[in-house]
Write a structure and sequence with these properties.
- It is a single chain.
- The protein is built from 17 helices and 6 strands.
- The chain is mostly helical and about 400 residues long.
- It has a 3-stranded antiparallel beta sheet, with helices on one face. Strands 4-5-6 form a 3-stranded antiparallel beta sheet.
Length: about 400
């Protein structure tokens, strides 16, 4: 039975003592509230569904996130990205106890993130991170919770399937733009991605001890040499003649990475190269079309400078561009060449190319997929190429 005692402050304290259960007590401004709480707790004890919320109520989300960073993240491939995500989540939920975070609060956070323009995939990652922290608290840390709030939160629908492949002379233009950059690692990384379908993290983790140029084999591992995305320890992939040459041209050491470049540095170099290749394409196309319309080479170059930012700047006081220049520029804006090109798109390109040479079970070994469903997401043959096979 519960006992009730009024304190000097006028508030009422309810105390429940029951054999086999931890002592429970809570203070309320009114006795009726204390009695209602006691009845609820005793009813749950009678039905063996009572959960002691004391630890969950004293553990803030910040406490849980800090412990997660120290104990769990070091073993995760996505540690750096998860730390950033946890910082965002801690700003939102950090002061709340684990017991007080409700599905409604998480739903509100979800809607706020979507309203800021974040992708559905990014918001799903946020919700999944919250879920992992709660599950870790329950399963690994022994913090009892009545439920995990994310189970009652609807995740936004994600449509992130991409079918982007290299088109026309994109590959040639891209490699030419890469050669103009200062980072010498970018070109061989791009070539290897196209030839092997390896992920960026796998290529950046390669060491020379994982390369056998005589046998034409490369052993791929996950970020920082850890397990791959499919949980395998490593994956051996065959190297084409082009891939072998790209590696053979690099300076070799007995130890260390094949590509001494960070993921962030590579990302910046890649983005600059794509942007540089696109600008070169726009410039060359605009010049050629203006000349075919009767402008001299000098006049065409002058018009080009009016609408394109060349060398990082525009003329101080440009005269208005001609009507035909504006029309060509507008048409170029709809030209997809070298637009929305991601590095991961090279994995789609490579998978489709390799599918023409390898059987499905061989292709799955090279790509690292354990099911045909995921493999199909990366295989994008062009209808005209399939038509040629029909004869």
């Amino acid at each position: 039975m519960a006992t009730f005692k009024q304190r000097e402050s006028g508030w009422w304290q309810a105390v429940i003592r029951r054999k086999g259960q931890p002592l429970q007590s809570k203070t309320f401004p009114k006795k009726v509230d204390a009695e209602a709480w006691a009845r609820d707790i005793e009813n749950k004890m009678d039905r063996s569904i009572f959960v002691d919320r004391a630890i969950a109520e004293s553990t803030t989300f910040t406490d849980a996130a800090d412990r997660y960073v120290k104990e769990v993240l070091p073993n995760k491939r996505s540690g750096a990205r998860d730390k950033y995500r946890l910082n965002v989540l801690t700003e939102e939920f950090g002061a709340y106890s684990l017991a007080s975070i409700t599905p409604s609060m998480i739903s509100t956070f979800r809607d706020k993130r979507l309203a800021l323009g974040l992708s559905a995939q990014s918001v799903v990652h946020d919700i999944n991170m919250i879920s992992r922290i709660f599950k870790t608290a329950v399963l690994d840390w022994g913090i009892p919770l009545a439920s995990i709030p994310t189970t009652l939160v609807r995740k936004p629908a994600v449509s992130n399937a991409r079918t982007r492949r290299l088109v026309a002379d994109e590959e040639v233009r891209l490699l030419a733009a890469i050669e103009q950059g200062e980072n010498l690692c970018v070109k061989p990384i791009v070539i290897l991605a196209i030839e092997t379908a390896a992920r960026q993290s796998e290529l950046l983790s390669m060491t020379w001890k994982d390369i056998n140029l005589k046998k034409r084999i490369a052993r791929l591992r996950g970020t920082d040499g850890r397990e791959l995305k499919n949980k395998d320890t490593f994956r051996d992939v065959p190297l084409s003649s082009r891939a072998v040459k790209a590696l053979d041209d690099l300076p070799k050491t007995l130890r260390g990475p094949v590509f001494p470049v960070t993921a962030e540095a590579f990302k910046q170099s890649w983005q600059r190269a794509v942007k540089r290749a696109r600008l070169t394409y726009e410039k060359e196309t605009l010049l050629a079309r203006l000349i075919t319309r009767g402008l001299s080479d000098k006049e065409a170059k002058a018009e080009t400078r009016k609408v394109l930012v060349l060398g990082g700047r525009r003329p101080a006081k440009p005269t208005p561009p001609r009507t035909e220049t504006l029309k060509i520029t507008a048409a170029l804006a709809d030209d997809p060449l070298l637009v929305d090109l991601h590095f991961h798109d090279l994995r789609h390109e490579a998978t489709t190319r390799l599918a023409e040479k390898l059987q499905m079970h061989e292709l799955m070994k090279v790509i690292g997929h354990k099911g045909t469903r995921m493999l199909a997401r990366y295989y994008h043959p062009r209808a005209e190429d399939l038509a040629k096979k029909l004869g």
